[in-house]
């Protein structure tokens, strides 16, 4: 190599270093490497906790998801609505690793490619999911259910022997209050009402400190009073957790959501504030008007 080439190469290298210093971690393939993120931690430094792009899922030729795109900001409470069969549950199945899409991208934060992981691993990364039907241990008390959920969190399991530590006990008491079950702690979960079981399951998910919480029709089958209390609970969680809530109950959606995404035929029809979405003639046609 001639001295000229060496000189120009060195100058280019110095300019590139200067550019990197000025622009910090933003943009480019090296962006995720530009700030320290612990291995396995969710990198939300760009404000996004979930990124879904052009996801396709077909079942025997039927397109359940057909180019789905979704961006969820850290701390957001997003409602996802849409007619039956729109692909809402399939979307949750893809995010949680239950269904692998034919193509597309799904990232937790900017660096974790969820399509490379299976369901239990994704749950362990901090993605909690509540299915439509409550799945609590009916014979155990409310308290025991919460205790078990806490023990299921690998981050605390090693510190659990036979007794909870004082901070863990305090955390469970706090959770009991949050889910309005403080008066029912010693009752078997099987004796609770449908709505109370749903709250218990939400409490069990919270015990595991999820970063992203996915709820599929949490107020289906609830009384009006239970629905209102659930709306209060979710509003309390907003900010500390990121929530994606799939629901059909429009009064509930209006009460909780900042942003509403409308799914239809496996893709996003529109997104926006509740009032804006509810006025959209396309939404009225495919969903609200039915
Ligand atoms: N495992 C499967 N095998 C075949 N078809 C499926 C499967 N899962 C979902 N589907 C179909 O994919 C489409 C989308 O289903 P999905 O359950 O995601 O809709 P949804 O929006 O959650 O509807 P709902 O509001 O009724 O819960 C439906 O037509 C459904 O029948
Ligand atoms: Mg569904």
UniProtKB/TrEMBL annotation:
PROSITE patterns on file: ABC_TRANSPORTER_2 (PS50893)
Q: Which keywords does the record carry? A: ATP-binding, Cell membrane, Membrane, Nucleotide-binding, Transport
- Answer whether the UniProt record assigns the keyword tRNA processing to this protein: no
GO terms of molecular function: ATP binding; ATP hydrolysis activity
Task: List the InterPro entries.
Answer: AAA+_ATPase, ABC_AA/LPS_Transport, ABC_transporter-like_ATP-bd, ABC_transptr_urea_ATP-bd_UrtD, BCA_ABC_TP_C, P-loop_NTPase
- Is the Zinc keyword given for this protein? no
- Ranges for domain ABC transporter come to 50-290
The UniProt entry's GO CC annotations, sorted and at most eight, read: plasma membrane
Gene3D superfamilies per the record? P-loop containing nucleotide triphosphate hydrolases (3.40.50.300)
Q: Write down what this protein is called.
A: Sulfate/thiosulfate import ATP-binding protein CysA
Q: Which species is this record about?
A: Tepidimonas ignava
Please name the taxonomic classification of the source: Bacteria, Pseudomonadati, Pseudomonadota, Betaproteobacteria, Burkholderiales
This protein's gene is called cysA_4
């Amino acid at each position: 190599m001639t001295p000229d080439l060496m000189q120009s190469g060195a100058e280019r290298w110095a300019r590139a270093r200067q550019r990197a210093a000025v622009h910090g971690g933003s943009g480019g393939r090296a962006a995720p490497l530009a700030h320290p993120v612990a291995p396995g931690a969710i990198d939300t430094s760009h404000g996004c906790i979930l990124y879904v792009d052009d996801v396709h899922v077909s079942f025997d030729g039927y397109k359940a998801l057909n180019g789905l795109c979704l961006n969820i900001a850290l701390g957001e409470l997003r409602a996802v609505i849409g007619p039956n069969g729109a692909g809402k549950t399939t979307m949750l199945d893809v995010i949680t690793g239950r269904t692998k899409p034919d193509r597309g991208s799904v990232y937790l934060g900017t660096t974790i490619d969820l399509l490379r992981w299976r369901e239990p691993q994704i749950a362990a990364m901090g993605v909690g999911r509540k299915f439509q039907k409550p799945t609590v241990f009916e014979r155990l008390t409310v308290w025991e259910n919460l205790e078990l959920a806490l023990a299921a969190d690998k981050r605390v399991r090693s510190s659990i022997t036979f007794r909870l530590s004082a901070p863990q006990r305090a955390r469970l008491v706090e959770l009991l209050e949050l889910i309005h079950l403080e008066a029912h702690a010693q009752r078997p979960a099987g004796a609770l009402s449908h709505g109370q079981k749903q709250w218990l399951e939400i409490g069990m998910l919270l015990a595991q400190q999820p970063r992203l919480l996915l709820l599929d029709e949490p107020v289906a089958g609830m009384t009006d009073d239970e629905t209102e209390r659930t709306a209060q609970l979710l509003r309390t969680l907003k900010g500390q957790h990121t929530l994606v809530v799939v629901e059909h109950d429009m009064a509930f959606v209006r009460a909780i959501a900042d942003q509403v995404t409308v799914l239809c035929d496996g893709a996003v029809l529109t997104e926006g504030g509740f009032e804006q979405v509810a006025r959209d003639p396309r939404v009225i046609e495919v969903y609200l008007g039915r």
